[in-house]
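Entry 0007
Protein: Ribonuclease H2 subunit B
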Amino acid sequence: MASPNQHRICIGPKVPKGAENPITLLLPSPSSGLPSRYVIQEGKLYEMQVVDPEGLRSWFVGDTIQSDGSLYIITPIDPVFMILPILDIMRQQTAESQGRFLVLHDIFESDQYTSLRHLALLHRIEDFLSLVSEVRTGSMDRAKTFRLDDAKALAWMKQKVQVLVDRFESVKTLTDAIAYTESLPDACRKEAITQSALKLVSAYLSESWATKLAGEYEFPELDKMESRTQLPSFSDFGKRSGMDLDEDPKAKKEVKKPKLSVGQRKLAKANTTGMKPLSSFFAKKT
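Output (structure tokens):
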């Protein structure tokens, strides 16, 4: 916790006057599983990313000097990205069983990750769960139960990709990619745009889900063109715009893990002896 005189410099959505105080959560990233910061305010979920100067820098705030020179960026995140790995673990699927159905509060119950319970308080949380789950509605005295449905989850992911495809021209960080695709034949351009959108969505998925999603797409025209002309991968333009779109052109369907933030890199370098996997956070104490 910061002291009363310690400030943090944040860039985030405009908060209405009189809004409730934000709740800061430490939760596993849906893509890497590493501890990451999230914020809930007014029933909405945000992710917090830290731009760490990795040096001795400070902020001048009014007539004070704040020793933390980091910049905190708070942006909205679709709760379904956070829900997917939780549902995947909590259903306890086996070769013999599709897994169990759970009521809302049991889904977010964790003795070790206590912040998880706050996700149950998000606005329209049951609607978010329903997007990727099979839902059973009980009698009047029984609540709804949910179990992850792989087919619905993949359909939801593909819909996310399509939304980005439809809005491709308006994504400002894709300036280089847009200029590149304009010079391509129509068939190649459509595939290149879809490939870029796929990479963006995959950055919020675990490696296993990103691989499943990638298996739903093929890019035959791009493959032909790159093999004939040895063009750079479309994802090279993502690198110039600061986006994580790395891809090995020799493995078209391989989806690499997203780059880690500075904080996550520090955690990754730390001694992990004795640290528990993500699934352990959802196991009750015995």
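Curator remark: The longest helix spans residues 150-166. Strands lie at 9-11, 23-28, 35-41, 44-51, 59-61, 64-66, 71-76, 102-103, 133-136, 145-148.
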